[in-house]
């Protein structure tokens, strides 16, 4: 094999991405040293967005014909060839008890939240859908079911997005302006832009500020999410052993964002699940952090869609990639 052929076979020598690879271009540089100076409602420096991931009843189960039991369970046990009724019942805790404890907590502290809603989960529990509308909560599409979108073809994923939006319209009487699926595919963002109904997506973890990207020459807004202040860390990998761990990570995150060494405002995402944070001790920890955050000046709780619209007011949609801040 010639030297050139060997180099072509081994990609370790590259210092850029291979042209034509499916999916969005990587955006490694971002805003750099000087992000735009953003302020949120009431001129706050930090906007906190609490996200309830409502998935219960839409996860993969033998009962729904998937031939598997989904993960994110309290214990590292797996049942491989039949229904796992213990795991199913943990999910049902979220839809039966946890979500209502969350609603009571957010009502008590007058906190607006965003629902990352799986359409089938809302179909199967219409009382939750009714309560979301009653509270006026923000809704972001979390897929038709809680399934990995990268497992499906482009056409299948397009149909899943259509089915989800039709379902939201039927269940809630409205459709989300944002999207965050479980494990996006290389086609997801293009499909959202082609669809034309979406103001933003949140399938991104690479910043503390929204930003504009371009998809096939069309400007598209990304509102980043986070897995750091996220209750999945109670049950997956290294993370929270106790609610006090969650409170400390959340509080330190907020403190840093309030004094991050510059005058730039930023957003803070908190991800929770009814079957996890809906348990008494964990929601108690979240309430402790809410009280801490509400004691601070320069902090506001906002929905994800309101964050998107506030950002657009301050950083309007660019006509060209080079018109973006710090492009």
Automatic annotation (TrEMBL):
GO terms for biological process: carbohydrate metabolic process. This is Polysaccharide deacetylase. Residues 85-302 form the NodB homology domain. Transmembrane segments: none annotated. Pfam families: Polysacc_deac_1. InterPro entries: Glyco_hydro/deAcase_b/a-brl (IPR011330), NODB_dom (IPR002509). GO terms for molecular function: hydrolase activity, acting on carbon-nitrogen (but not peptide) bonds. The lineage of its organism: Bacteria, Bacillati, Actinomycetota, Actinomycetes, Actinomycetales.
